[in-house]
Each structure stands twice: as C-alpha cells, then as structure tokens.
Specification:
By secondary structure, the chain is of the alpha/beta class. The chain is built from ten helices and twelve strands. The longest helix has 27 residues. The chain is globular. Bound molecules: adenosine monophosphate and magnesium ion (MG).
Length: 322
C-alpha cells in the first residue's frame, strides 16, 4: 500500500493505492472569495488539514497505518511554502513508521494518471493553473514539445476572474458565463508549438474597462485560448506521429475544452481520453499511483534525504520506469 500526498499549490490531498488500484482519494482545497492564492496562507491551510485528511483517507479505505510501504510526496514543482508544509508532514509519517519517501514530480503524476485510462503512447495536453505544456515520451524522458511562454492557461482564467471579482478558482465560473456569451476578437499568439497568453489577459482587461459584457469576454477567452492549445497539440501529434491525445490538469475539467479536443481527434482519426474529474484536479491519488510505479522500479529515498524542488521541470525527471 502506497500513500500519496499532494501539496504543490492550492490542494492538500491524500490518496491510497494498492496494485495500481485507487482505494481512496481525499482532498481539501484552499479557496478564497475574492483574491488569489497567498502562498503562506495556503501552506498554513495544508498544515491545518493534513492530519484530518490523512486519517480520513485511512478510515475510508479501511486500511491500517502499519501496512503503508512508502509515502509518495509531490516534492516538485510548486509554491515553496506549500511544498515545505507537505514535506514536513510526509517526513513526520515516514519517520514514525520507518518507511521511505518516493519523491514524485507533480506534472509527471498528471501524465502517469493520464495513461491509467488505457492510452499507450499519448501526447498529453497538460492544462493546469501554473503549467501549460504539450508533452510526449521520447528517449527516456517526458519531453516538452510546446509550452506557454508566459502564464499558464489556468492562471489566465484565474487572473481574469480575480480582476472581475469572481474569486478563486476562476475556471468553473468563467465556464458558466461563457455559456451565455458570443465571440469578440482577442489576440491569438502561437509560435510553433508554444503559446502566449499575456496579450489576451491585457486585452480582456481593456475590453472589461470599456464595458464589454462579462459573458462575451468569458466566451471569447475560452474559444481563443483553447483554440491555441488545440492547434499546438495537433501540431505535436502530426510531428510525432502519435495517435492518442490525453487531456490533463485542472482546466481539463472544462467541457468546451474537452469537446474541442474530441473534434480535433475525430478529424485526424486519433483517440482522445480524459481521466475522471477527481483525477484531473490536483489530488493525492495520482501521486500515490505514480509513486507505486516508481517504487516498483526501485525508486525511494530515506526521509532525511528528500527536499523540495520548487522549479523542477517535467523534462528534468529521468523516467527509468518506462
Ligand atoms: P491545477 O493547477 O491542475 O490544480 O488546476 C487548477 C486550475 O484549473 C485553476 O486555474 C482553475 O481555475 C482551473 N479549472 C478548474 N475547473 C475548471 C473548469 N471547469 N474550466 C476551466 N478551468 C477550470
Ligand atoms: Mg496540477
């Protein structure tokens, strides 16, 4: 039994996995009414809820602490205070139970859980708050074929939401408004397989100040930014010859983004899959799931040898288990 701890940003989560089966996936998310994430506050949230989330995961899975083989921890990348809160918690348990820690890169976990639905060799369109990347496996690493040159797609949504007083997270609220909106032109910036969102952000704020309707701005935001992602993902599929697309990260919860992926894949006779919502958002189960694969490949560390790596990139990780 492997316990996974997620702590990289807004969510503290604990998942339990046994032989690739997810027994439980418990999470507690830091939210705000108006502003964005304040890292120190968010870390305090993680420390406050950690024990309760952990105990509740064990109880729901009807598992005994003593049967935990290792703690998988999302030690990278993320907000340093949040990572430290998670590290402190994981080290506490690892020392108490005398078990090792498996350091898991959060982005790689989004990828591995994307494969759990059956895709063999996919292109992953990874759409998170802070990260937006088009990734595929090649020569021992998850290679980044394209990525955002500035902010992540989720940050674009959240920044606009914050600017207009919607609070965090903005994505689901924007999705609702967009249902009643119509198209307005926004900058469309794609360079090869890289995308840039800051021009859209500026233009949205200008149009909002001029009194453009929030519904129309939300609709245009989704149509424009998602189209850029689909174009980059399609180019990566054409370039690599891969026939499977998997969508991941919190923004993948968006029904319109999923629909656009499905249409593009139908056009090029490729398959499209998207994990369940509970596995798309940040969660402990994907950390446990990836941790178990790594553990079986012999990857583990003594608690005292594990540190946080706030800036570790997806393509820094040597994927020795594939
Ligand atoms: P992550 O960083 O992967 O945890 O994802 C969090 C991001 O997902 C935040 O930026 C949210 O605004 C965004 N998000 C969550 N649900 C939706 C949705 N239905 N549509 C668009 N974005 C969403
Ligand atoms: Mg994430």
């Amino acid at each position: 039994m492997i316990v996974g701890v997620e702590c990289t940003a807004h969510t503290f989560g604990v998942g339990i996995v046994k032989n690739a089966k997810i027994l439980v996936n418990v999470r507690d998310m830091y939210r705000t009414e108006t502003g964005g994430i304040i890292p120190i506050e968010c870390a305090k949230h993680h420390t406050d809820v950690a024990n309760r989330v952990f105990e509740s995961a064990l109880a729901q899975a009807k598992q005994d602490k003593g049967d935990i083989k290792a703690i998988a921890l999302s030690n990278a990348p993320g907000l340093a205070p949040c990572l430290l809160a998670g590290l402190r918690f994981a080290k506490g348990i690892a020392k108490e139970l005398d078990i090792p820690i498996i350091p898991v890169n959060h982005c790689v976990a989004h990828l591995e859980i994307g494969r759990s639905a059956g895709a063999k060799d996919q292109v992953l369109l990874y759409t998170s708050g802070a990260n937006t990347q088009i990734i595929a496996f090649a020569s021992g690493k998850y290679r980044i074929f394209g990525e955002t040159l500035d902010i992540g797609i989720g940050n674009l949504l959240d920044k606009f939401a914050r600017h207009t007083g919607m609070g965090f997270p903005g994505g689901p609220r924007i999705e609702e408004y967009a249902k009643k909106g119509k198209y307005v032109e926004l900058p469309y910036a794609i360079k090869g397989m890289d995308v840039s969102f800051s021009g859209i952000q500026t233009r949205l704020q200008q149009l909002y100040a001029k009194g453009e309707s929030i519904e129309d701005l939300c609709f245009a935001l989704q149509e424009t930014a998602f189209a850029m992602l689909i174009e980059a993902a399609e180019r990566a599929m054409a370039h690599t010859g891969k026939k499977e697309l998997v969508l991941g990260g919190g923004v993948a919860c968006n029904a319109r983004l999923q629909e656009m992926c499905r249409m593009m894949c139908e056009d090029r006779k490729a398959s499209f899959s998207c994990p369940d919502k509970s596995l798309l958002v940040d969660n402990g189960a994907m950390i446990a799931y990836t941790g178990e694969i790594m553990f079986k490949a012999g990857i583990k560390k003594k608690a005292e040898d594990v540190d946080i790596l706030p800036r570790e990139r997806t393509d820094d990780v040597k994927v020795t288990w594939r």
